[in-house]
Design brief:
- Pfam families: Alpha-E (PF04168).
- By secondary structure, the chain is mainly alpha-helical.
- It has 2 domains: 151 residues, no CATH class; 166 residues, no CATH class.
- The protein has 16 helices and no strands.
């Protein structure tokens, strides 16, 4: 497969996953502002801090209001990670490889982009039901991935797509945990005793659609169990461990190698090392090290995997 084509499939999937996760970020803060109006009505700045866009935000906006942050994260094309920007990039990547995508996938993504663009460009744009608006965005993204799963052959293109999707998902799940940590936590993880703590950490689970699956495994809500579930759970699709495991599987399918036979390139080495580190790190070790510090380190290593994938498969100058 041409590196250009592989790169487009990889990033198309990453950008749509990013659209869904940014919609989730905003949804969870909206719901918390309803549940804890005296505490969370003003706590919107951690969203841009956790996504790594704080410096850009501060250069464009004067205050950390709910309206400004929603505009920045959803509609602002000056923000390369906004919903609008990500959807635009995903559509452009798809346009360049239309011939290898299922017809239904291209038509859905193109329509999704055009409808969002029409709404975003309205001079007096107003979201009448903000909760429903972001739910609809999430559903459009889920429909896109459902179409890919149902209609695309399991070839190199498919595995480059799933690789991108799960690398992006692992990153964003780590940032959901970071948002909770910044928003409402002391420097140490503690047992939940305050009802406000319970609402915040329940919202973290709901933000990644994990609440019901978590309750099937744990009788009560507490920070350690939630952190354990979202980092180390091997069977929940939005957990970090599961996402890295799926990304590793996709990467090895592309090369035709097997993880049990050792790595064949630097990208495989990086992802297998990270997967084993997650497997062999106990939650007590994470808490001792510091949740925020652990998540920062994970994000750096996850980004390194992306860099190695680029060097191995996408950088034409190295070929």
């Amino acid at each position: 497969m041409l590196s250009r084509v592989a790169n487009s499939i990889y990033w198309m999937n990453r950008y749509i996953e990013r659209v869904e996760n940014y919609s989730r970020y905003i949804s969870v803060n909206i719901n918390l502002s309803y549940d804890l109006p005296g505490i969370f009505s003003e706590k919107w700045s951690p969203l841009v801090a956790a996504t790594g866009d704080k410096d850009l935000y501060l250069s464009l906006y004067e205050s950390d209001t709910k309206e400004n942050i929603i505009e920045f994260m959803t509609f602002d094309l000056k923000n390369p990670n906004s919903v609008y920007s990500s959807l635009s990039y995903a559509r452009e990547n798809a346009r360049t490889i239309r011939e290898i995508l299922p017809k239904e996938v291209w038509e859905h993504l193109n329509g999704f982009y055009l409808n969002f663009k029409d709404f975003a460009k309205q001079p007096n744009r107003e979201i009448h039901d903000i909760t429903l608006f972001y739910e609809n965005l999430k559903e459009e993204c889920q429909l896109f991935f459902g179409m890919l799963e149902a209609t695309m052959s399991r070839n190199e293109g498919y595995y480059f797509g799933t690789l991108g999707r799960y690398i992006e998902r692992a990153d964003k799940t780590s940032r959901f945990l970071d948002i909770a940590y910044f928003n409402y936590s002391n420097t140490k993880v503690k047992k939940i005793v305050d009802p406000n703590d319970l609402l915040v950490w329940a919202a973290v689970l709901k933000s990644v659609s994990a609440f019901n699956m978590y309750r099937q495994q744990y009788k009560s809500l507490n920070q350690e169990s939630i952190i354990d579930f979202l980092i180390k759970e091997r069977d929940f699709p939005r957990a970090i461990c599961y996402s890295i495991k799926k990304a590793e599987y996709s990467l090895y399918r592309i090369s035709g190698a097997r993880p049990q036979d050792s790595y064949t390139n630097s990208a495989e080495k990086a992802i297998s090392q990270l997967k084993h580190e997650i497997d062999f790190t106990e939650i007590s070790d994470i808490i001792k090290f510091g949740l925020h510090e652990y998540l920062n380190e994970f994000q750096t290593k996850n980004n390194n995997i992306d860099d190695e994938v680029f060097k191995v498969y996408f950088d034409s100058e190295l070929k």
